[in-house]
Specification:
151 residues; five-stranded mixed sheet; alpha+beta; elongated
């Protein structure tokens, strides 16, 4: 995981614990004050939302505890690896694209960040500039030429 991704994850965990957790508790207290809990759908919904929030917090804590921050100064742009920014050409459609290969937690397709576990990233790993990767995706096989690699 990148240092930036790690810092974002820690900040999000802090936000969930400091802001969202008290909101969830307040929602439960408010619903509880409305009377009979056996027929109080607001209370049940608030309890369910709190359970989902606690699951998310616990999952984030595990992710943070297991995270390994990649030292970008030790990375090379000779071949595709995690945190590589890769410019590609789809050889079938001649479409240009650019992806940064990141950890699963940092993946965000709108930002051009794809998880290292995706078929495309797996097919690109260890390839060099000029190499062509044939990658099986749900719609078939795509051919991508690597135009450049940067960190």
């Amino acid at each position: 995981m990148s240092k930036e991704g790690y810092d974002n994850l820690v900040a999000e965990l802090h936000r969930l614990e400091a802001i969202e957790r008290p909101k969830a508790s307040a929602a439960i207290a408010e619903a509880r004050d409305k009377g009979d809990l056996s027929e109080n759908s607001e209370y049940e919904a608030a309890k369910e939302a709190q359970a989902h929030l606690e699951d998310k917090i616990n999952q984030m804590k595990r992710t943070i505890a297991e995270a390994k921050i990649v030292d970008t100064s030790r990375l090379s742009s000779d071949a595709v690896q995690i945190l590589s920014k890769v410019e590609l050409t789809n050889l079938v459609t001649n479409q240009k694209m650019q992806y940064t290969i990141v950890s699963e937690q940092e993946a965000n397709l709108r930002e051009g960040k794809i998880s290292i576990t995706t078929p495309i990233a797996q097919g690109l790993l260890n390839k060099k500039v000029g190499d062509t990767a044939e990658i099986k995706v749900p719609r078939g096989t795509i051919k991508l030429r690597i135009d450049s690699i940067a960190i």
